[in-house]
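thread: overnight batch results

M.L. [08:02]
morning all. the overnight job finished for the chain we discussed friday. pasting input first so we're all looking at the same thing
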Amino acid sequence: MTKLRSISIITLLFILFLALLLQIRNLQDNLIASSHGVTQAIPPTPAPSPLVIISEDIPIGDSPFKGPPKAPVTIIQFCDFEYPYCQRAQKVMNQLLQRYEGQVRFVYHDFPLEGIHPHAFQAAIAARCAREQGKFWEMHDKLFENQYALATNDLLRYASELGLDLERFRSCMGSERYVEAVKQDIAIGQELGVVSIPTFFINRHRIVGLRPLSTFEEVIDQELAR
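M.L. [08:03]
and the structure it wrote out:
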């Protein structure tokens, strides 16, 4: 009887220990999210914003893109690798590229919010350095998958996991040769009225925030029917 009671006490203490570990883990997750400018891993859906038709053409330059260069519909996204809304938007963009294969071109523009995301600008540089070795989209996906771990050592680890030449990647990161290019993306966005992200331009239609897939489909279908 005494032995059974001892076993029960040990089991109870073990359960309490596991519960304490879980509480500590949740607290750590909340602290990590807070340090990156968000209060939870998956933020609430932002309030709907009206569609706006802009008059000016949007410069693309040599920005990275997916899809045919001369597709009838171009989606330009202004985003930040450290922002959860932008992470969630990638699933929507991938669905659109699959549904409208051959008809849509997706263009990525940087818009790091340095005030609340201390690693976002460096992450944008890392993606451009990976692009030198033909791995922009692979690094793009890595950064969004690990957006709470974007310190320099993390970026070097992702470069290694992608099979990049680490010395070349490290040299690129240290050269600052893409700093002005990222700043130019920000300036273009500001000229177009981008004040929050993600912001999308489907041809000349502006959509602000993460919207349902159907919202993007409606605009794309309208553009394809023109």
